[in-house]
Design goal:
This protein is an alpha+beta fold and 124 residues long. It is built from 3 helices and 6 strands. It is globular, with a radius of gyration of 14 Å. It binds coenzyme A (COA). The site of coenzyme A (COA) has 18 residues, from strand 3, helix 2 and helix 3.
Length: 124
Amino acid sequence: MAYRARSTPWIERCIFHSEYVLALNSNEPIGFLRYSWFWGKIPYMEMIFVTPELRRSGIGRQMLQHWETLMLANGADVLMTSSVIDEPEPQAWHKSNGFQLQGAISLGSFQPESEVFFIKSLSQ
Ligand SMILES: CC(C)(COP(=O)(O)OP(=O)(O)OC[C@H]1O[C@@H](n2cnc3c(N)ncnc32)[C@H](O)[C@@H]1OP(=O)(O)O)[C@@H](O)C(=O)NCCC(=O)NCCS
Protein backbone atom coordinates (compact mmCIF):
# COMPACT_ATOMS: atom_id res chain seq x y z
CA MET A 1 0.00 0.00 0.00
CA ALA A 2 1.24 3.47 -0.83
CA TYR A 3 0.83 6.01 1.94
CA ARG A 4 0.39 9.61 0.96
CA ALA A 5 3.27 11.43 2.55
CA ARG A 6 2.52 14.64 4.39
CA SER A 7 5.04 17.42 4.77
CA THR A 8 6.77 17.94 8.09
CA PRO A 9 5.32 21.46 8.51
CA TRP A 10 1.80 20.02 8.13
CA ILE A 11 2.48 17.29 10.70
CA GLU A 12 3.92 19.88 13.09
CA ARG A 13 0.86 22.05 12.55
CA CYS A 14 -1.49 19.14 13.40
CA ILE A 15 0.53 18.33 16.54
CA PHE A 16 0.47 22.01 17.55
CA HIS A 17 -3.34 22.03 17.25
CA SER A 18 -3.70 18.61 18.99
CA GLU A 19 -5.28 17.17 15.86
CA TYR A 20 -4.04 13.68 16.66
CA VAL A 21 -5.38 10.70 18.57
CA LEU A 22 -2.59 8.37 19.69
CA ALA A 23 -2.99 4.75 20.75
CA LEU A 24 -0.38 3.76 23.33
CA ASN A 25 0.65 0.42 24.77
CA SER A 26 2.91 0.79 27.83
CA ASN A 27 3.65 4.34 26.63
CA GLU A 28 4.74 3.05 23.20
CA PRO A 29 2.76 4.37 20.20
CA ILE A 30 0.88 1.60 18.37
CA GLY A 31 -1.42 3.71 16.24
CA PHE A 32 -2.56 7.20 15.37
CA LEU A 33 -5.46 9.07 13.88
CA ARG A 34 -4.70 12.48 12.34
CA TYR A 35 -7.42 14.93 11.40
CA SER A 36 -8.12 18.46 10.26
CA TRP A 37 -11.23 20.47 9.39
CA PHE A 38 -12.90 20.64 5.97
CA TRP A 39 -14.13 24.23 5.46
CA GLY A 40 -12.81 24.83 8.96
CA LYS A 41 -15.99 23.15 10.24
CA ILE A 42 -16.30 19.47 9.35
CA PRO A 43 -13.88 17.05 11.05
CA TYR A 44 -11.87 15.31 8.35
CA MET A 45 -9.90 12.17 9.26
CA GLU A 46 -6.78 12.42 7.11
CA MET A 47 -5.16 9.22 8.21
CA ILE A 48 -5.64 6.36 10.63
CA PHE A 49 -2.85 3.85 11.11
CA VAL A 50 -2.36 0.84 13.38
CA THR A 51 0.94 -1.08 13.72
CA PRO A 52 0.57 -3.97 11.23
CA GLU A 53 1.03 -6.82 13.74
CA LEU A 54 -1.69 -5.37 16.00
CA ARG A 55 -4.39 -4.90 13.38
CA ARG A 56 -7.87 -6.46 13.72
CA SER A 57 -7.73 -6.23 17.50
CA GLY A 58 -10.01 -3.21 17.86
CA ILE A 59 -7.36 -0.46 18.15
CA GLY A 60 -8.53 1.42 15.05
CA ARG A 61 -12.14 1.26 16.20
CA GLN A 62 -11.21 2.53 19.68
CA MET A 63 -9.32 5.51 18.22
CA LEU A 64 -12.28 6.28 15.96
CA GLN A 65 -14.72 6.10 18.89
CA HIS A 66 -12.50 8.41 20.95
CA TRP A 67 -12.29 10.88 18.07
CA GLU A 68 -16.05 10.74 17.54
CA THR A 69 -16.63 11.60 21.20
CA LEU A 70 -14.21 14.52 20.91
CA MET A 71 -15.86 15.79 17.74
CA LEU A 72 -19.38 15.47 19.18
CA ALA A 73 -18.21 17.56 22.12
CA ASN A 74 -17.01 20.12 19.54
CA GLY A 75 -20.52 20.27 18.04
CA ALA A 76 -19.85 18.17 14.92
CA ASP A 77 -22.82 16.66 13.04
CA VAL A 78 -20.82 14.60 10.56
CA LEU A 79 -17.35 13.17 10.12
CA MET A 80 -15.51 13.04 6.82
CA THR A 81 -12.72 10.87 5.51
CA SER A 82 -11.39 9.66 2.19
CA SER A 83 -9.30 6.95 0.61
CA VAL A 84 -7.55 6.26 -2.64
CA ILE A 85 -10.03 4.40 -4.86
CA ASP A 86 -7.86 1.29 -5.27
CA GLU A 87 -7.51 0.62 -1.51
CA PRO A 88 -10.40 -1.78 -0.73
CA GLU A 89 -9.20 -2.79 2.77
CA PRO A 90 -9.41 0.63 4.44
CA GLN A 91 -12.65 1.30 2.58
CA ALA A 92 -14.13 -1.90 4.04
CA TRP A 93 -13.00 -0.74 7.47
CA HIS A 94 -14.59 2.67 7.00
CA LYS A 95 -17.89 1.09 5.93
CA SER A 96 -17.93 -1.38 8.80
CA ASN A 97 -17.39 1.55 11.16
CA GLY A 98 -20.39 3.56 9.98
CA PHE A 99 -19.00 5.62 7.10
CA GLN A 100 -21.02 5.84 3.90
CA LEU A 101 -19.47 6.28 0.49
CA GLN A 102 -20.54 9.60 -1.05
CA GLY A 103 -18.55 9.86 -4.27
CA ALA A 104 -15.17 10.11 -5.91
CA ILE A 105 -13.20 12.94 -7.42
CA SER A 106 -10.14 13.13 -9.58
CA LEU A 107 -7.30 15.18 -8.13
CA GLY A 108 -5.69 15.74 -11.51
CA SER A 109 -1.93 15.63 -11.66
CA PHE A 110 -1.69 15.64 -7.83
CA GLN A 111 -2.68 11.96 -7.65
CA PRO A 112 -3.28 9.62 -10.60
CA GLU A 113 -5.99 7.57 -8.83
CA SER A 114 -9.33 9.06 -7.82
CA GLU A 115 -10.09 9.77 -4.17
CA VAL A 116 -13.32 8.38 -2.68
CA PHE A 117 -15.05 10.32 0.09
CA PHE A 118 -17.00 8.99 3.08
CA ILE A 119 -19.35 10.63 5.56
CA LYS A 120 -20.42 9.37 8.97
CA SER A 121 -23.48 11.04 10.46
CA LEU A 122 -23.34 11.64 14.20
CA SER A 123 -26.90 12.90 14.54
CA GLN A 124 -28.80 9.61 14.50
C1 LIG B 1 -7.55 0.58 8.64
C2 LIG B 1 -6.93 0.28 9.98
C3 LIG B 1 -6.61 1.61 10.70
C4 LIG B 1 -7.94 -0.51 10.82
O1 LIG B 1 -7.46 -0.60 12.14
P1 LIG B 1 -7.65 -1.98 12.97
O2 LIG B 1 -7.20 -1.70 14.36
O3 LIG B 1 -6.97 -3.08 12.25
O4 LIG B 1 -9.20 -2.22 12.88
P2 LIG B 1 -10.14 -2.77 14.03
O5 LIG B 1 -9.53 -3.97 14.66
O6 LIG B 1 -10.50 -1.67 14.95
O7 LIG B 1 -11.40 -3.20 13.19
C5 LIG B 1 -12.69 -3.09 13.71
C6 LIG B 1 -13.63 -3.75 12.75
O8 LIG B 1 -13.55 -3.14 11.47
C7 LIG B 1 -13.70 -4.17 10.47
N1 LIG B 1 -12.45 -4.30 9.70
C8 LIG B 1 -11.19 -4.06 10.10
N2 LIG B 1 -10.33 -4.23 9.08
C9 LIG B 1 -11.08 -4.62 8.04
C10 LIG B 1 -10.78 -4.95 6.72
N3 LIG B 1 -9.54 -4.93 6.24
N4 LIG B 1 -11.79 -5.32 5.93
C11 LIG B 1 -13.05 -5.35 6.40
N5 LIG B 1 -13.41 -5.03 7.64
C12 LIG B 1 -12.43 -4.65 8.45
C13 LIG B 1 -14.05 -5.44 11.18
O9 LIG B 1 -15.45 -5.50 11.39
C14 LIG B 1 -13.37 -5.23 12.50
O10 LIG B 1 -13.92 -6.01 13.48
P3 LIG B 1 -13.58 -7.61 13.52
O11 LIG B 1 -12.10 -7.75 13.39
O12 LIG B 1 -14.12 -8.01 14.86
O13 LIG B 1 -14.31 -8.21 12.37
C15 LIG B 1 -5.63 -0.57 9.85
O14 LIG B 1 -5.94 -1.72 9.10
C16 LIG B 1 -4.47 0.15 9.19
O15 LIG B 1 -3.65 0.79 9.87
N6 LIG B 1 -4.35 0.05 7.84
C17 LIG B 1 -3.26 0.68 7.12
C18 LIG B 1 -3.42 2.18 7.01
C19 LIG B 1 -4.68 2.56 6.25
O16 LIG B 1 -4.98 2.02 5.21
N7 LIG B 1 -5.40 3.56 6.81
C20 LIG B 1 -6.64 4.03 6.24
C21 LIG B 1 -6.42 4.95 5.10
S1 LIG B 1 -6.46 6.62 5.60
